[in-house]
């Protein structure tokens, strides 16, 4: 059976060819469908691997293949939320590599694995039925990975296919594509080589009827109109993948299981809560004097009183039914105020920002610092400069699987429990913290200069949180970078847009009415339908992240959200400009210093020292970091000018130029033996010089095992010929053997005065 879908030329010619193969085997049929996306083919197959799973699928593009399995328990979980776990793991075997750790196996979970797991989770979670509290696990197993196609988008499509082909209740399928932009042209699922030239990296997950369920994007200051066009192109291509998975499900004759129960509160309990508590709840939500903590306390007081009332009137009700009934009424009242009365719980207009204040240079000793306050969300950002060797270096497996290069810019996001008046564990970074930090880092990375001489670390610590702390981190990070004197190309600001919507009673997947909210509070995120985060400069967009809690967003809503966020972003930038307009012309006086020094070949051995002794001692004593650029050039990084001054004194003493008499190449000198060793003798050509090794092989024409075989002893004078310095390691090259021949030679002698002068500027050599 074959279907051909023709799209407009601007969205790339695309066709879908469904090739259904039935391979008769026990308990399953092997199905395969190919989706042609321009010149690329996406192949989805099922029925061959992992047949004990509730659902499994393999998605392949060229030589990159990902197998995804889905399993959901038939007994409900005691948790009061959808217990979904997504595990995406990078496999060394998929890239034909062996892990480089001591066990030679995959250990722990890398940041990229966690971020990809979150990407898949955010794409599929909105389509599970409300109240489906059954443990569900999605596992992504990389079968093979080439150096052309990234597996993350394939994993999203694999999760969609595995769930659609299983009996797990799920309102899919979805489709996902990556959109790149090269020279203004949109590319679907571009290769790594194409992505290296792209100014846009966008992953779009779409639902049926051209709706959006997830967007994750980073961009190099892409214009708003180009960004909107990329979203539309991506969504249109996702529909072809959705059609293919739907065709597979029909051929597979999938029948979804009926859960024992969906965890929703009984209507009579909800009605009782509405009757006894709605007025008091409404009063709290319309009291604009409340802040986060006081509002939570007021609602919690009503909750406790209502629960006591429900226990008396509904003694057989389960705890979750009581809790969910109260939550349902709270959500209903909160959303009704926004939808029908255009009222927010803090009194703002729907498109108004919270009060914003900015400060920079809070701590003089820091390389850069800033405090960004938006309402009750407060983030302290600090800048630390390090040597280029401090940059993040990807391990071999990550490089092979994802093509990640070294990063000399990083942002670390911290969310301590006191930021929300809670007590919790400290030290272990959560997936949420990692995801928020990655988004803030994406927001700022495009404005960082490529040739900056230091590695930059931004630390964003959330001190207070009441919504949109990741975007506050982007704002604070931009201010701190300018305070540190980093010549960023433009200031960056970010904002979160929320959504309160009303579903069409006849078609629950369609939105009948909605309101967009600018700069949402934590409660507006919790009780709303969308968290739409956008960051960028006055010119364009640098990052976008869209998470939804409903089965999908119409493109119209997405376009309006981008426009509303762009207006808010420019308003925030105007406030930030009052604090600092452009980066400092110079870095702070106590900032780091980098200098390049030349070490003559004759001095390099002494500069490095035996086994790197001198360099290690210099770094330990002064705090500098030294790296070799080429044979004679070293780069010295000092965290502070004082450290560089100390290092310079040490280096100058070792590396100062010889102004006195130099040894003459090919000349013969008298050398004094200072030490007898098994491999040779240590000698000095003049007083006060560092002894150098005269190896056994250079003592005599015949082979000897020990210098004593020649009758040599400490204090004895012998004649040696000088051949300069070894160009590779700077060692002095001398020989006695070449003088043991009938050829007449003239011995060079040094006067005592000359020897003393030469000794004070002696050329060192490794012993």
UniProtKB/TrEMBL annotation:
GO terms for molecular function: 3'-5'-RNA exonuclease activity; polyribonucleotide nucleotidyltransferase activity; RNA binding. Its EC number is 2.7.7.8. It is found in: Cytoplasm; Mitochondrion intermembrane space; Mitochondrion matrix. It is a peripheral membrane protein. Residues 666-737 form the S1 motif domain. Gene3D superfamilies: GHMP Kinase, N-terminal domain, K Homology domain, type 1, Nucleic acid-binding proteins, Polyribonucleotide nucleotidyltransferase, RNA-binding domain. GO terms for biological process: mitochondrial mRNA catabolic process; mitochondrial RNA 3'-end processing; mRNA processing. It comes from the Eukaryota. Transmembrane segments: none annotated. It holds the Pfam family RNase_PH. One of its GO terms (cellular component) is cytosol. CDD domains: KH-I_PNPT1 (cd09033), RNase_PH_PNPase_1 (cd11363), RNase_PH_PNPase_2 (cd11364). Keywords: Acetylation, Cytoplasm, Exonuclease, Hydrolase, Membrane, Mitochondrion, mRNA processing, Nuclease, Nucleotidyltransferase, Phosphoprotein, RNA-binding, Transferase, Transit peptide, Transport. NCBIfam families: polynuc_phos, PRK11824.1. Homotrimer; in free form. Homooligomer. Component of the mitochondrial degradosome (mtEXO) complex which is a heteropentamer containing 2 copies of SUPV3L1 and 3 copies of PNPT1. As part of the mitochondrial degradosome complex, interacts with GRSF1 in an RNA-dependent manner; the interaction enhances the activity of the complex. Interacts with TCL1A; the interaction has no effect on PNPT1 exonuclease activity. Belongs to the polyribonucleotide nucleotidyltransferase family. This is Polyribonucleotide nucleotidyltransferase 1, mitochondrial. It comes from Gouania willdenowi (Blunt-snouted clingfish). The gene is pnpt1.
């Amino acid at each position: 059976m074959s279907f051909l879908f023709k799209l407009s030329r601007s969205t790339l010619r695309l066709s879908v060819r469904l090739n259904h193969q039935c391979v008769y085997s026990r308990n399953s049929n092997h199905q395969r469908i190919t989706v042609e996306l321009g010149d690329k083919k996406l192949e989805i197959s099922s029925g061959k691997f992992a047949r004990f799973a509730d659902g499994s699928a393999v998605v392949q593009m060229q030589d990159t293949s990902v197998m995804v399995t889905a399993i959901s328990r038939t007994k409900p979980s005691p948790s009061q939320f959808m217990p979904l776990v997504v595990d995406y793991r990078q496999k060394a075997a998929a890239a034909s590599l062996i892990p480089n750790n001591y066990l030679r196996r995959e250990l722990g979970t890398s940041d990229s694995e966690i971020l990809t797991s979150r990407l898949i989770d955010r794409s599929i979670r909105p389509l599970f039925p409300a109240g489906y509290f059954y443990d569900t696990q999605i596992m992504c197993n990389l079968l093979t990975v080439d150096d052309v196609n990234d597996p993350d988008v394939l994993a999203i499509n694999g999760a969609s296919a595995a769930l659609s082909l299983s009996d797990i209740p799920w309102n899919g399928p979805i489709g996902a594509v990556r959109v790149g932009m090269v020279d203004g042209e949109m590319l679907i699922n571009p290769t790594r080589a194409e992505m290296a030239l792209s100014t846009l990296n966008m992953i779009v997950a779409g639902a049926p009827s051209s709706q959006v369920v997830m967007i994750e994007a980073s961009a190099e200051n892409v214009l708003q109109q180009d960004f909107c066009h990329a979203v539309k192109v991506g969504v249109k291509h996702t529909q072809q993948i959705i059609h293919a998975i739907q065709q597979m499900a029909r051929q597979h004759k999938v029948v979804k299981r009926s859960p024992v129960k969906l965890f929703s509160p009984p209507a009579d309990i909800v009605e009782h809560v509405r009757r006894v508590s709605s007025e008091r709840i409404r009063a709290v939500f319309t009291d604009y004097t409340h802040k986060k903590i006081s509002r939570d306390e007021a609602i919690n007081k009503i909750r406790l009183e209502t629960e006591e009332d429900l226990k008396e009137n509904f003694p057989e009700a389960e705890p979750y039914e009581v809790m969910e009934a109260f939550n349902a009424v709270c959500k209903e009242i909160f959303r009704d105020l926004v939808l029908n009365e255009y009222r927010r719980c803090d009194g703002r207009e729907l498109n108004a920002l919270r009060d914003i204040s900015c400060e920079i240079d809070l701590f003089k000793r820091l390389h850069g610092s800033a405090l960004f306050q938006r309402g009750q969300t407060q983030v302290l950002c600090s800048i630390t400069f390090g040597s280029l060797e401090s940059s993040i270096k990807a391990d071999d497996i990550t490089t092979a699987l994802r093509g990640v290069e070294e990063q000399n810019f990083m942002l670390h996001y911290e969310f301590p429990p006191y930021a929300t008046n809670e007590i919790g564990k400290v030290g272990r970074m959560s997936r949420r913290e990692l995801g928020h930090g990655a988004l803030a880092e994406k927001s700022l990375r495009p404005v960082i200069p490529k040739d900056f001489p230091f590695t930059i670390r931004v630390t964003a610590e959330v001190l207070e949180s009441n919504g949109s702390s990741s975007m506050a981190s982007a704002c604070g990070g931009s201010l701190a970078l300018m305070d540190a004197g980093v010549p960023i190309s433009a200031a960056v600001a970010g904002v979160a847009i929320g959504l309160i919507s009303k579903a069409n009673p006849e078609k629950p997947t369609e939105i009948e009415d909605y309101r967009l909210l600018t700069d949402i509070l934590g409660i507006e995120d919790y009780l709303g339908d969308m968290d739409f985060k956008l960051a960028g400069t006055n010119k364009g967009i640098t990052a976008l992240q869209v998470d939804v809690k409903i089965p999908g967003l119409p493109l119209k809503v997405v376009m309006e959200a981008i426009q509303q966020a762009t207006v808010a972003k420019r308003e925030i930038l105007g406030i930030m400009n009052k604090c600092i307009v452009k980066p400092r012309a110079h870095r702070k006086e106590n900032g780091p210093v980098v200098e390049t020094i030349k070490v003559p070949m004759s001095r390099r051995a002494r500069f490095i020292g035996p086994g790197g002794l001198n360099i290690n001692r210099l770094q330990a004593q002064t705090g500098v970091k030294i790296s070799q650029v080429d044979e004679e050039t070293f780069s010295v990084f000092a965290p502070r000018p004082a450290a560089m001054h100390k290092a310079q004194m040490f280096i100058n003493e070792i590396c100062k130029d010889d102004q006195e008499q130099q040894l003459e190449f090919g000349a013969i000198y008298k050398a004094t033996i200072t030490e007898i060793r098994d491999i040779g003798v240590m000698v000095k050509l003049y007083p006060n010089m560092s002894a150098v090794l005269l190896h056994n092989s250079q003592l005599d024409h015949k082979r000897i095992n020990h210098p004593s075989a020649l009758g040599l002893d400490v204090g004895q004078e012998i004649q040696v010929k000088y051949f300069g310095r070894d160009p590779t390691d700077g060692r002095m090259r001398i020989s006695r053997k070449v003088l043991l021949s009938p050829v007449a030679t003239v011995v060079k002698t040094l006067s005592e005065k000359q020897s003393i002068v030469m000794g004070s500027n002696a050329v060192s050599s490794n012993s």
